[in-house]
Write a structure and sequence with these properties.
The protein is α/β, with parallel strands linked by helices. The protein contains twelve helices and nine strands. The chain is about 45% helix and about 15% strand. The longest helix has 13 residues.
């Protein structure tokens, strides 16, 4: 099932909840179990981040989790291994998120082949601009759904162009800046999200960046098909107990209002 079809099926009763996890964090050996627990707690999808030393779109919480994973020795092969183990136990889609540099170092064609073979459904590469889309995502990527991002600075023409190229869904960045927990959203954020949602016609739209609690989801429910939670979950995992009780309760509480 394509990601868009899956989102459509979930949307018959609720909004989609996608959770971002940094591959191998917080514990390299327990990551697969952690990911499956997150899905069991109410996540509809997983976005698995490939650890990188310079994740430019991410705030300090995800940056630090990436550093921790690299310190534990998490490699690209581990990301594929984790994904393969997870998809054997769930039908919920896995989207990989990574930056161009490590993908190119691994080999673009090799990456695409291994990503498909491990069972990943989609890919997000935030630092590949739309005007370089065809150069980067060659025919090797035909079996991966490439998810593109809109930002608060994207004008209507650019949003429409992104809508035509993106596959799976569109990742709507809610705020200007990097990922992280946001305590307050001003009126311009709501207007931009509504504008983007009304402009998109070919894709589902999930909102990310800054969303961290049930109240945030409730505020945006009318202008999206789902939400992506990253930093709030990563930060909770870092300080949680061995069973990640607080984190799983957080995910469950957000899922309940989706």
């Amino acid at each position: 099932m394509k990601i868009s079809e899956y989102i459509d099926s979930v949307n018959k009763t609720r909004k989609v909840l996608s959770i971002f996890l940094t591959a191998g964090f917080p514990n390299k050996e327990k990551f697969v179990d952690t990911a499956l627990s997150v899905l069991d707690a109410g996540a509809d999808m997983l976005e698995i981040g490939i650890p990188f030393s310079d994740p430019l779109a991410d705030g300090h919480v995800i940056q630090e989790s990436s550093f921790d994973a690299l310190t534990q020795g998490v490699k690209m092969k581990d990301v594929f291994s984790y994904t393969e183990a997870i998809v054997k136990k769930t039908d919920k889609p896995i989207v990989l998120m990574g930056y161009a540099n490590p993908i190119m170092k691994y080999g673009k064609n090799n990456f695409a082949i291994d990503a498909v073979n491990c069972g990943a459904k989609g890919l997000i590469v935030p630092d590949v601009p739309i005007n370089e889309y065809e150069d980067f995502f060659n025919e090797s990527y035909n079996d991966l759904e490439i998810v593109l991002l809109t930002t608060p600075t994207s004008d209507e023409k650019r949003i429409k162009s992104i809508d035509k190229k993106s596959r799976g869904f569109i990742y709507c960045v809610s705020i200007t800046g990097t990922t992280g927990v946001k305590t307050k959203f001003d009126e311009s954020v709501y207007k931009n999200i509504e504008r983007t949602y009304n402009t998109i016609s070919d894709n589902k739209m999930l909102i990310g960046f800054g969303i961290s609690k049930p109240e945030d989801v409730t505020r945006f429910n009318d202008y999206c098909d789902g939400v992506i939670i990253g930093s709030a979950v990563i930060n909770s995992l870092r300080y949680d107990d061995e069973k990640y009780s607080t984190t799983l309760k957080l995910i469950s509480s957000i899922s309940d209002v989706c």
